[in-house]
C-alpha cells in the first residue's frame, strides 16, 4: 500500500466515524431519553429506533457485500426498515448499537487490507472506495435525521 492509499484510508476512516462536518452516531444518541427511542414526530415516517435499525441493516449489508461474493442483500425496502417503532427491550437497542460499531470497525479493517479501486468481482462496478463513500453518506444522512428528531422532541443540547 502506497502513501496515497494510506492518506485516503485515513480520511475515509474519519468520514465513517463521523467526519469533520458531521457527528458520530454515538454523539447523536448520547443522553437520548429511552422513552424517545420509539416516538414518531408528526409527518415523519419513522422513529429514532427505526433509523438506528435501518443504519444497522444497511451498513451490515454494505459490509457483507464488500467481503462476500455469496452475500444476498435483504429485500428493498421492506427488509431494511423495522416495522416496530421501538425496540422490544434494552438488549435489542444495545445490540443494534454494538453491531453498528463492530461492523464499522470490520469495514475499516477491510479497507486497510483491500485494493480500494479494484472492482468487486461479484458486483456491477462497485469497489471498496465506493462502498465506503456510500456507507458514510448513508449513515450521515440518517444520523442527521436522528438529530432533527431529537430537536423536535426538545431533547437536543
What would you say this structure looks like, in words?
- It is globular and about 45 Å long.
- The chain has 5 helices and no strands.
- It has a single domain, classed as Four Helix Bundle (Hemerythrin (Met), subunit A).
- It is an all-alpha fold and 157 residues long.
- The longest helix has 25 residues, at 128-152.
- It has helices at 3-16, 25-29, 48-67, 90-112, 128-152.
Name the features.
single chain, 157 residues, mainly alpha, 5 helices, DinB/YfiT-like
- Enter the CATH topology name: Four Helix Bundle (Hemerythrin (Met), subunit A)
Q: Identify the overall geometry.
A: globular
Q: Compute the number of helices.
A: 5
List the uncertain runs.
none
| CATH level-4 homologous superfamily | dinb family like domain
What about the largest sheet? none
Q: How many beta-strand runs?
A: 0
Q: What value does the Rg take, in angstroms?
A: 16 Å
**CATH class category label:** Mainly Alpha
Structural domain tally: 1
Amount of beta strand: under 5%
Structural class: mainly alpha
List the topology elements.
Layout: H1 3-16, H2 25-29, H3 48-67, H4 90-112, H5 128-152
Task: Provide a brief overview of the structure.
The chain is built from five helices and no strands.
Amino acid at each position: 500500500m502506497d502513501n496515497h492509499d494510506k492518506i485516503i484510508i485515513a480520511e475515509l476512516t474519519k468520514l465513517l466515524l463521523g467526519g469533520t462536518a458531521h457527528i458520530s452516531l454515538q454523539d447523536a444518541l448520547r443522553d437520548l431519553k429511552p422513552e424517545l427511542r420509539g416516538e414518531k414526530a408528526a409527518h415523519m415516517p419513522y422513529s429514532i429506533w427505526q433509523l438506528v435499525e435501518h443504519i444497522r441493516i444497511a451498513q451490515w449489508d454494505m459490509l457483507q457485500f464488500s467481503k462476500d461474493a455469496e452475500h444476498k442483500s435483504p429485500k428493498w425496502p421492506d427488509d431494511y426498515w423495522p416495522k416496530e417503532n421501538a425496540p422490544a427491550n434494552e438488549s435489542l437497542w444495545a445490540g443494534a448499537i454494538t453491531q453498528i460499531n463492530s461492523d464499522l470497525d470490520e469495514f475499516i479493517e477491510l479497507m486497510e487490507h483491500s485494493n480500494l479501486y479494484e472492482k468487486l468481482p461479484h458486483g456491477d462496478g462497485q469497489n471498496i472506495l465506493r462502498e465506503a463513500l456510500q456507507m458514510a453518506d448513508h449513515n450521515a444522512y440518517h444520523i442527521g435525521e436522528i438529530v432533527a428528531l431529537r430537536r423536535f422532541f426538545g431533547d437536543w443540547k
